[in-house]
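Worked example

This section walks through a single chain of length 189. The input is the sequence exactly as stored; nothing has been trimmed or padded.
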Amino acid sequence: KIQDGTVRFRQEGKDTDGAVYELTGLNVEVDRLGNGSSTVLKMGGAIGIRMTEGGQTSEFAATLDESITISWNDELLPVSFESAVALVVGKVSGVFAEFAENRVEVSGKLENNELNPLLLKVSKADLLLGSLSVSGPLNVDEGSADLQFELADLNQNLLNQFKDLVGFSFGEPTVSASGGLTLAAGGEA
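Given that input, the structure is written out below as tokens.
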């Protein structure tokens, strides 16, 4: 168990005036980690980024809340899991200003070698900005999978949040895609 921890990384150099990346108020609890058992991992805290380039300071603050239950086989490989992760963006400025009010949610369940589905959703206030869903047979022991994915309604409201970081905007596209991924022979094919 970790309570009220802090992890901080400071970057300095000729290409930047400085950046600080930190996770504060870190609370981590791991219960029953072991071969052939079921582990509960809970984590929460505040994420902060402060970057200064060319005299302009950009700030990003968000909260993270995560809960994952993982069942392990005798070799300590995951055989099932259920997860719920939420990242909620708070105070932002500078190049991060467009990320205000974003919420990123990840949930998923692996049970009986079936991923049902792993879902990533990004929203701003109550507007869905895009989602990614992955589902299908997944056998970690054998290194095999036959996964289907669907990227839905990825739109300019999400893509243009990166315009200050990449240096251009995306106009008004809406991106959707679907496909599959098959792994066999222990992940070698």
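What to look for: The longest helix spans residues 156-159.
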